[in-house]
Every structure is written in C-alpha cells, then in structure tokens.
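[09:14] KT: can someone run the structure on this one? pasting the chain below
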Amino acid sequence: GGACRLGFARAILLGLLLVWIGLAVGVSGGEGNRAKAVFAGVLLVGAIGALLGQLRAAGMARAMVATGIAQLLAGGYALALGSMEGGMLSGAFAALWFTSAALFRKAALQ
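[09:31] RB: done, structure tokens below
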C-alpha cells in the first residue's frame, strides 16, 4: 500500500541524505573524526535490519526503530566529542526514522 511505499521512500531518502551530509558537509567535525564511522554504523543497522526483516513491512518497522535508536546513540557520541550540530541533527534524523517506522507499522497492520 501507500504507507509501505512512503516508508520505503522516506528510508531511502534519509539514508542518502545521511551519506551526503556525512561526506559532503561533515556532520561530525573535521576529517578523520571517529564520529563519522559511528554515523556510518547507523546506515549499517538499517541495512542489516532491512535484510533480517526480509523487506516486509513489519520487519522494516522494527528495522527503522533500531535505526532511529542507533541514530540517537550516534548523536550522543557526537555530543560527547563536542559536536552540537551532530547531536542536534541526529535528533532530527531519529524522529524521521521513527516516522518511517510508523508508516511501515501502519502498512503491516493493513
């Protein structure tokens, strides 16, 4: 249904945006910053979760929740390193991962 397609679209766009911000803009500070690896780990959590969920709506909902939690943890790490921008941006991204999870959950219940 529409909720599932919107969930996938949002997840893909968020992943691409996270890569772009991490590579082009530098969400976590200077080059070689350890936080960049942590932010890459967020995408890894999402990809592994999607595979484990077999790209089905219920599994994707769980994967997006896990990705949102990983995003919050990455933001906490960025804050600990002194990157207020990384922490704030992570909070916003986590909210978007969680809305993607809600869309997948809605699709799973239909």
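[09:33] KT: thanks! The chain has a mean pLDDT of 88.
[09:34] RB: yep, looked fine to me
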